[in-house]
């Protein structure tokens, strides 16, 4: 059985292995092949020839993620009042545990906080932004902003999200040479005092385009594989002549596929097509869960 088929079977049939990270070693260096492996459920992909230092760091990162989830599950999901919240808490625990793996595939950072502002969980995108340390950091288990005015705004937003009548807030964090980093603080419909997350903070980096998967937009718009690849190339900012050179085809062939893209997406201009494609960006794991 091929490794990809084994991974597919395990992810589809063995829920007990949901918390087990899978790292695949691949000969294929193109982004489409790597995305396909991630769609099957790979937590990470190491490309050949293998660099031992890269493999070591990848394994350490996956193991650290597993330990963080284990520590979180060890105390975060304990009901404050077992008789009152027992069944409710177990159901929510399962939901959040299942959601954790899906969040790791999202292009937006997601951070879960309890009613006191303590971090309960975060996905890989959020971890990468926080570990960079220029604008966000974790101090004493809490999410902190490095700049004073946005830090105060974030504290107020978290308080507003945990009130009896909670409200959502947007906290922009200015950056000198880039577009702002935006925190969307959203209340969750979960009672305080249960130990469960009550606030979700969505971290949006406006300077980074969300990744666009050819396989996903092919499903959305019923595109052929070639049409989907050309659509991704257009969304990445390539001109038609650049795409023709990249795919080793004529400009007329590329123009033919672009006309098909206009027809299938019901657009008439390239700018409208690219805008639609960027709005169609969906993380592969999210699509799998929804299917």
TrEMBL record:
Top-level taxon of origin: Bacteria
Domain HTH luxR-type: 216-281
The protein, known as: DNA-binding protein with HTH domain
Annotated PANTHER family: TWO-COMPONENT RESPONSE REGULATOR
UniProt keyword list: DNA-binding
Gene Ontology molecular function terms on file: DNA binding
Residues of the Response regulatory domain: 1-63
Pfam families for this protein: GerE
Entry-linked PROSITE patterns: HTH_LUXR_2, RESPONSE_REGULATORY
InterPro entries: CheY-like_superfamily, Sig_transdc_resp-reg_C-effctor, Sig_transdc_resp-reg_receiver, Tscrpt_reg_LuxR_C, WalR-like, WH-like_DNA-bd_sf
Listed CDD domains: REC
Gene Ontology biological-process annotations: phosphorelay signal transduction system; regulation of DNA-templated transcription
């Amino acid at each position: 059985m091929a490794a990809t088929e084994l991974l597919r079977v395990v992810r589809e049939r063995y829920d007990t292995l949901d918390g087990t990270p899978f790292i695949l070693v691949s000969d294929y260096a193109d982004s489409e092949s790597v995305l396909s492996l991630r769609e099957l459920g790979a937590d990470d992909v190491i490309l050949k020839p293998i660099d031992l230092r890269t493999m070591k760091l990848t394994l350490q990162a996956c193991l650290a993620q597993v330990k963080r989830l284990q520590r979180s599950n060890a105390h975060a999901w304990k009901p404050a009042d077992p008789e009152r919240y027992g069944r409710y808490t177990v159901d929510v625990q399962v939901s959040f545990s299942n959601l954790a793996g899906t969040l790791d595939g999202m292009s937006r950072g997601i951070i879960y906080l309890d009613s006191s502002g303590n971090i309960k969980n975060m996905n890989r995108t959020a971890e990468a932004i926080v570990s960079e340390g220029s604008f966000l950091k974790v101090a004493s288990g809490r999410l902190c902003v490095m700049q004073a005015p946005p830090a105060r705004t974030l504290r107020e937003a978290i308080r507003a999200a945990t009130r009896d009548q909670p409200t959502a807030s947007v906290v922009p964090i200015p950056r000198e040479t880039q577009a702002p980093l935006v925190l969307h603080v959203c209340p969750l419909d979960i009672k305080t005092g249960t130990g469960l997350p009550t606030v979700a903070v969505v971290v949006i980096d406006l300077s980074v385009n969300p990744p666009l998967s050819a396989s996903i937009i092919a499903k959305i718009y019923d595109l052929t594989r070639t049409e989907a690849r050309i659509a991704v190339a257009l969304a990445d900012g390539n001109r038609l002549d650049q795409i023709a050179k990249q795919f080793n085809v004529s400009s007329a062939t590329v123009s033919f596929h672009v006309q098909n893209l206009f027809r299938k997406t019901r657009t008439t201009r390239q700018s409208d097509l690219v805008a639609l494609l960027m709005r169609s960006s969906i993380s592969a794991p999210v699509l799998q869960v929804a299917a």
